[in-house]
Write a structure and sequence with these properties.
- An 11-stranded mixed β-sheet has the order 2-3-4-5-7-6-8-9-13-14-15, with helices on both faces. A two-stranded antiparallel sheet has the order 1-12.
- With 552 residues, the chain is α/β, with parallel strands linked by helices.
- It is 37% helix and 14% strand.
- The chain has a domain at 114-204 and 273-308 and 475-551: Alpha/Beta hydrolase fold, catalytic domain (Rossmann fold, 3-Layer(aba) Sandwich), CATH 3.40.50.1820.
């Protein structure tokens, strides 16, 4: 990587595939110590980069170009800070904080499932589903499920199935924080989450160590030795994931998970369910609405992807979204006299990248704390939520003084708060095997949008060069004519799932309503009381605004 590289339009942009978790509450990574996992969990935006490695779609034509990717999304959204140099101390506005838990219930029977105390903040169950829904003779796989029982059993409406994003977002930390939902929803619904195929104990991959190591290799090699190191790390990661998944490597993609969602509904004994999906979880919901619309009572999609876009175009859209947010991040520091970054923050960032390319920051044992990959991951983390900008500013200023602890904390929080093994595995299963030509084409386009930073994004798809043939995730418009109504949330300041995608999805759906949040950060629910009230009213009373609505 050229130590003096510059990024398109002078910005550092980071492509993250759709992922993410629900922005409701969380922890500041710089207050937890290196490697601490985040609290709750909306991206992604994700190592093997299918731009939505997540890419919703259901039409018969498979996508043929690579799905962009760079790294998985952090598992949760942070709490707000009051200024660029102050610690994060309070929860975000919007969703009212609520104690996680099961409401004192130790067991709930639901259909054929028995949810029981498992030592977590939620009740646990498991469900066997067909390994291949198209081939009943292919055996079964087991999915992990969790439930937050409705707290007001007499006023219980039914089941609200939820997914935090990803691909690779797990239910565990998500349900530990009540899925970021309001008290109103927790009182009226049995909130059910699950670990999709390829996540945690549901068809485990066992390759997170290898994919994390891959993600910490310099993504823009500028010598044969660096290229060889990147290629070897990608190959090792792919082989570890394929070995862990075994015969299920081609059966963990998004289309199989969508079919599992209806198996969960049936096992719960529910004629219809409500659904709330965030980021990649919104993609799952969109596909479910298209295939199983009559089985839905209500559905909310927060930060969906546009299924009509080719994978490369989706990657370009994400890079533009990140570029807008990162420009704002640097401008905010410029305008704040208390910002601790010396001089121009963008120039300071570029200077640090040049420095650690040549001389990485190390700890007292000589281990690398901060190299090019860690700096980009820290910026990626900050791009998901303005409440993390102050942490990034402090980390950048400290790194320029030779102390890489804070930026390393942010990078590790990102990696350990998401599952790069799941992201790689599900992303490659959705894209199928890629070729060098595929990656080169994407690299050219991403470089046009965001310079070297854009080019580094596509390197996350390198493990897919070693993936076997799969059924690629198809693409095309989705109308979901059998779904009664779909509430689509779009945040004008979203980095990973740009607002334009939500507007396009609401427009193409036969019964879509768009709720616009004029804010910042990834996703909308939990950031604005106006948004939360519209969503809660719809899920509880099936009341939608007349026409599209905007919230501040």
């Amino acid at each position: 990587m050229n130590p003096h590289r510059r990024f398109g339009t002078g910005l550092a942009g980071c492509l993250i595939t759709v992922a993410l978790l629900v922005s409701a509450c969380g922890n500041d990574p710089t207050t937890q110590g290196s490697g601490s996992a985040p609290g709750p969990s909306p991206s992604a935006q994700t190592p093997a980069q299918p731009t939505t490695s997540p890419q919703p779609t259901t039409s018969p034509e498979p996508a043929t170009s690579p799905q962009p990717t760079t790294s998985p999304e952090p598992a949760t959204s942070p709490q707000p800070a009051t200024g660029p140099s102050e610690p994060i101390t309070s929860s975000e506005p919007g969703v009212e904080p609520s104690q996680p838990g099961t409401g004192g219930q130790e067991q709930v029977e639901s259909g054929s499932l028995r949810f029981q105390d498992c030592g977590e903040m939620y009740l646990c169950a498991s469900l066997e589903v067909p390994a291949d829904h198209r081939n009943p003779d292919a055996g079964t796989v087991t999915l992990e499920l969790g439930m937050l029982p409705a707290r007001d059993r007499e006023q219980r409406i039914g089941v609200l199935l939820v997914n935090p994003g990803g691909p690779g977002g797990d239910m565990n930390s998500f349900l530990d924080y009540n899925a970021g939902l309001s008290r109103r929803l927790l009182e009226r619904f049995d909130v059910v989450g699950w670990n999709p195929r390829g996540v945690m104990g549901s068809v485990p991959h066992g390759c997170s160590d290898e994919t994390n190591r891959f993600m910490l290799v310099d993504p823009l090699p500028d010598s044969p030795q660096e290229q060889s190191a990147l290629d070897e790390a990608a190959r090792t990661a792919a082989e570890a994931c394929l070995e862990g998944l075994g015969k299920y490597a081609g059966l963990i993609g998004t289309t199989h998970t969508v079919a599992d969602m209806d198996s969960i509904r049936q096992a719960l004994g529910e004629e219809t369910i409500s659904y709330f999906g965030f980021s990649y979880g919104a993609q799952l919901g969109l596909l479910y609405a298209d295939r199983y619309g009559t089985n839905l009572r209500a559905i909310v999609l927060d930060g969906p992807t546009d299924p009509t876009l080719e994978p490369i175009e989706m990657g370009v859209g994400q890079l533009r979204g990140f570029a807008r947010v990162i420009a704002d991040l640097f401008d905010t520091c410029r305008r704040d006299s208390d910002c601790p970054v010396p001089g121009d923050p963008e120039t300071a960032y570029e200077n640090l990248m040049a420095q650690v390319e040549v001389t990485p920051l190390r700890d007292s044992n000589g281990d690398v704390l901060v190299g090019p990959a860690e700096v980009e991951l820290a910026l990626t983390t900050a791009a998901y939520d303005p409440y993390l900008w102050s942490s990034f500013y402090r980390g950048l200023a400290s790194a320029l003084r030779g102390d890489g602890e804070m930026l390393n904390d942010m990078a590790m929080w990102y990696l350990e708060g998401s599952d790069s093994g799941s992201f790689v595995s599900i992303g490659c299963a959705d894209s199928g095997p890629l070729t060098r030509d595929d990656l080169q084409d994407a690299m050219v386009r991403f470089g046009e949008v965001a310079g070297d930073f854009g080019r580094s994004a596509i390197q996350s798809a390198l493990p897919c060069l070693h993936w076997p043939e799969t059924d690629p995730l198809p693409g095309g418009p989705i109308r979901a004519p059998d779904t009664p109504s779909v509430l689509v949330l779009g945040n004008r300041g979203d980095n990973a799932t740009p607002y334009e995608w939500a507007a396009a999805v609401a427009e193409m759906l036969e019964h879509g309503t768009l709720l616009t949040y004029n804010g910042k950060g990834h996703l909308s629910y939990g950031r604005s009381r106006c948004v939360d009230e519209v969503v809660d009213d719809y899920l509880i009373d099936l009341v939608l605004p007349t026409g599209n609505q905007e919230c501040d």
